[in-house]
Amino acid sequence: MCLSIPARIVTINGTMADVSAGGAIFKAGLHMIEDAKVGDYILLHAGFAIQKISEKEAAETIKLFEEMNNSMNE
Amino acid sequence: MKYIDEYRNKDLIMKLADQIGKSVRRDYTFMEVCGGHTAAIHRFGIPSLLPGNVKLVSGPGCPVCVTGTDFIDKAIAYSKMDEVIICTFGDLLRVPGSTSSLEKERAAGADIRIVLSGLEALEIARISSEKKVIFLGIGFETTAPGTAVTIKQAETENVNNFFLLCAHKVMPPAMEAIIKEGVNLDGFICPGHVATITGPTVFNFIPEKYNLSCVITGFEPADILQSIMMLIQQVNRNAPKVEIQYIRAVRMNGNSIAKKHLSEVFEPCDAIWRGFGLIPSSGLILRKNYDRFNVEKSIPVKIQIREDNKLCICGKILRGLKTPAECPLFDDICFPENPLGA
Predict the structure, then answer these.
(1) Could you tell me the pTM of the whole model?
(2) Domain at A54, CATH number
(3) Which residues does chain A have within 8 Å of residue B139's beta carbon, measured at their own beta carbons?
């Protein structure tokens, strides 16, 4: 119940969406996020999308990891 | 899967662990307060990747574990009434009440159904208009907005056979309670998904008032190791603050729509945490204008208050002071599949 997982929006029907995570489809309420589009990644928690995952910020974290690695290899 | 695999890259994880090893200068104790973090830390073997002087302790952040005996007893009392359907998240089934559990009552014939969300419980109420459907609302700031949306929907559609038995809680007061009890900590691995809703500022009192470090953390192994690294750096610099590691999901303002739902439907109340007792303003209760959905007001039920087993040390375990192996009851009359306390 208390775990949130990243999931991709597959279809949207009003305030509800089918989302895909780990090969399974779940229902997600879109009541708490704005401008949800098919293909967006969201955090699914207890039947609701609680936030959109930011592609830009995710890339930023990966970049930080890589920079850290490079600085260690130097 | 995207947003998972890249944070489980073995080379990256080993390098992060190596960097932590090179950064330690003293002993460090950090507490994770989210049950999701506790699960991830052990699933991915994080402690085995850390130097011996970096200690992780688990806090009270599993909403299932901290749900009080009295709540389970009330749910069981409702399940024994005629024409009642109890809808619950599956995790709550095995949590012991004072004499039974929802799982045992279900096996004995009570109509107790597992749902994945409040909206599913509302759907059951819609199609079972002759029954009273009671949803067991548990969880922190992440789960409570979903219950708020469900209650609003029940009101809009005028579903008058849908009720809430509420034990929703909020995290910061419990963290403050732990600090005030003098648990020896250098900082917190702050709950990433709670912060997704609340934003980071709810934790500001921790560095400001108590001089402890905070990093809001994601749930993959690279996230957790990077956060531990950030915490160690804060401690080394003696510059405690709230930092966000989990930037892909946590915004400065949190989720304002979810927060609006929360504040419109709920107000703060004192709440009992299993193993802790009462923590002021750590719970959520339906606002008066939603009283008709509050099952404790609409259909009052009396339960016998029973004291918890005095030998149980779950409270100390939830404070990070003891481990289960130190409890005289563990592996004697208390087992993971049939627990006694939290």
Answers:
(1) 0.92
(2) 2.30.30.140
(3) 1-2, 46
Neighboring chain A residues of B14 at a CB cutoff of 8 Å: none
Q: Do A51 and B196 touch (CB under 8 A)?
A: yes
Strands B162-168 and B132-139: parallel
Give the architecture-level CATH label for domain B1-306.
3-Layer(aba) Sandwich (3.40)
What is the number of structural domains in chain A? 1
Q: Do B16 and A27 touch (CB under 8 A)?
A: no
Question: Residues near B335 by Cβ (< 8 Å), separated by ≥ 6?
Answer: none
For chain B, the average pLDDT equals 94
Share of chain B above pLDDT 90, in %: 77
Q: Tell me the ipTM for this assembly.
A: 0.89
A5-48 tens-digit pLDDT: 999 999 999 999 999 998 899 999 999 999 999 999 999 999 99
- Sequence ranges of the domains in chain B: 1-306
The residue of chain A nearest to residue B153, with distances taken between CA atoms, is: A31
Q: Determine the pLDDT at residue A23.
A: 86
- Test B116 with A58 for CB contact under 8 angstroms: no
Q: Give dist(CA B302, CA B74) in Å, integer.
A: 8
Say how far apart CA A39 and CA B156 lie, in whole Å: 30
Nearest CA in chain A to B255: A51
Q: What is the CA radius of gyration of chain A?
A: 15
Is residue B229 within 8 Å of B201, Cβ to Cβ?
Answer: no
The partner residue sitting opposite B36, judged by closest CB among A2, A29, A60, is A2
Domain range for residue A67?
Answer: 5-73
Whether residue A4 has pLDDT greater than 90? no
CB B29 within 8 A of CB B287: no
Partners of residue A34 in chain B, C-beta under 8 Å: 257
Distance separating alpha carbons of residues B267 and B277, to the nearest angstrom:
20
Verify whether the Cβ–Cβ distance A32 to B258 is below 8 Å.
Answer: yes
pLDDT in tens, B243-300: 999 999 999 999 999 999 999 999 999 999 988 889 999 999 999 999 999 999 999 9
B3 contacts A29? CB cut-off 8 A: no
- Whether B15 and A22 lie within 8 Å, measured CB to CB: no
